[in-house]
Write a structure and sequence with these properties.
By secondary structure, this protein is α/β, with parallel strands linked by helices. The chain contains 16 helices and eight strands. An eight-stranded mixed sheet has the order 3-2-1-4-5-6-7-8, with helices on both faces. The N and C termini lie far apart (about 50 Å). It binds 1,4-dihydronicotinamide adenine dinucleotide (NAI) and 1,3-dihydroxyacetonephosphate (13P). The site of 1,4-dihydronicotinamide adenine dinucleotide (NAI) has 24 residues, from α1 and α4. Belongs to the NAD-dependent glycerol-3-phosphate dehydrogenase family.
Amino acid sequence: MSGIVVAGAGAFGTALAVALSGTREVTLWGRDGPAMARLSGTRSNPRLLAVPLPPALDVTSDPAALERADILLLAVPAQALRGFLADHAEALAEKPLVACGKGIDLETLEGPTAVIAHAIPSARPLVLTGPSFAADIARGLPTALTLACADPEEGTRLQALLSTPVLRLYRTTDLVGAELGGALKNVVAIACGACLGGGFGESARAALLTRGFAEMRRLALVCGAEDGTLMGLSGLGDLVLTAMSEGSRNYRYGLHLGRGESFEPGVTVEGAATALAAARLGQRLGIDLPVTDAVAALVEGHIDVGSAVRALLDRPLKAE
Ligand SMILES: NC(=O)C1=CN([C@@H]2O[C@H](COP(=O)(O)OP(=O)(O)OC[C@H]3O[C@@H](n4cnc5c(N)ncnc54)[C@H](O)[C@@H]3O)[C@@H](O)[C@H]2O)C=CC1
Ligand SMILES: O=C(CO)COP(=O)(O)O
């Protein structure tokens, strides 16, 4: 039996640990010692998830657990991944590291697999991504995700290890497509939320979702992604979930932007930093990303939603 360690005890890491615990040996590792000790005692964190932890799930803040792992699921936010890897590089060497966060690093403009490859060259990066709210996964509701692994044999082995009767993993070798789909859909979800929050209606949201998806594909394909991956769970599938549901923090953040309200402090909103990163990447690669650029300008407070929508409508007419 492989020892799975989920690193990052936020909503998603806790949900994944809950879902995988039972038939597998699973440890949930978090950096905050007192918080993990409390969680170990109470076996629940209602602020994060409505379900209790299964008795078999081990909970710790001891870094030695990272070293003992056969495989690690990294459920820290994208902007924290580089720091986490630097802190634990020795313990994580030569292991399969499954990136579960969705974003592009704002400083390096890299996705999680390149961040892992640079920080720990001996590690084997994978990506686990797709439409899944932590609350749904923790409750055992049916969910389908994409597992990307460069080595098809290892991908097949880990697909079996990380699937459960209700958590169905599809595999691919397209790491770039999987991670960019997951990262970029958050930006489009912010745009869709801002559109509804600003009172522009559901037809406009459908237009933004579709044109935003065209942008996602444009950027991802130039970065080496396969179109089939973008059309699958990790791209279109996750975009549909995130851009249509108030269960999404990115969408809710967009709603607040659209209404001109401030958002709940301290909540992880990956699409905000990723919009800035993707806009810079688009400039660097010479790719037209009007929706992304508008979200980046909104996030930075340079424009309001009304002017963002007007700027998008004023663009020259073109072929679809
Ligand atoms: N919540 C959800 O429904 C889903 C989240 N995700 C992705 O999972 C990632 C994490 O999201 P959540 O768990 O929801 O966020 P969260 O805000 O609930 O938790 C983030 C956790 O990461 C920890 N963390 C931050 N920096 C760290 C560091 N340097 N070292 C160790 N731990 C660190 C924090 O202490 C916190 O426990 C994000 O990239 C998100 O896009 C993916 C699918 C679903
Ligand atoms: O990635 C997610 C769903 O697949 C979670 O979305 P939010 O981070 O917007 O809540």
